[in-house]
Design brief:
The chain has seven helices and no strands. By secondary structure, the chain is mainly α.
Length: about 180
């Protein structure tokens, strides 16, 4: 267990594990759901998963809403990649940005958890389908996340290939 915890990066701790623990503790306090684990090993994985879900909601819901509302403005992805090569502090600042977005998402999820608890108490027939609805929502969330991540990888590959000097060799897997 100690080895596993040592392998977690600060990004994983502050964007997944920490928010997951907050959701488990506060979610259990503000709702009738018991989100805490009795076993520490199961708990680490469970809280990490909660945090992963919260992080994805932040990325897929909160971020676009804040962009749309012009609360935040992003540099182009190409500029971000190029600037990150020049200024290594940008990656750390971006990681901190993600922590704030994930914490905002944590509190949104806690609010939604309270609302779901309220709705389930008033619509008992909905409780029958609670697990099915949860699985379906998680399926949609992770397909949407996969799509977004694939777009980031593709953008990064294109940026890397564009920034390669004419005399430099590129990996032939990326040539078309």
């Amino acid at each position: 267990m100690k080895d596993l915890l040592e392998k977690l990066s600060t990004y994983n701790i502050f964007n997944y594990l920490f928010p997951g623990v907050l959701v488990a503790v506060f979610g259990t306090a503000v709702s009738s759901f018991d989100l805490l684990a009795d076993d520490i090993v199961v708990g680490v994985f469970l809280y990490y998963f909660y945090g992963l879900v919260v992080s994805r909601i932040g990325s897929l819901v909160i971020e676009p809403i804040l962009k749309w509302a012009r609360v935040v403005r992003f540099a182009s992805y190409t500029d971000f990649v190029v600037a990150s090569r020049i200024d290594k502090k940008i990656d750390m600042l971006s990681e901190q940005n993600n922590v704030y977005r994930t914490l905002a998402s944590t509190f949104l999820c806690l609010t939604l958890l309270g609302l779901a608890d309220w709705a389930l108490a008033r619509l008992p027939t909905l409780s029958v389908y609670r697990a099915h609805i949860t699985v379906l929502l998680l399926l949609v969330l992770f397909i949407w996340s996969y799509r977004k991540q694939t777009n980031y990888v593709s953008a990064r590959v294109k940026t890397a290939l564009r920034s390669t000097s004419p005399g430099e060799e590129t990996d032939s897997r990326f040539e078309q």
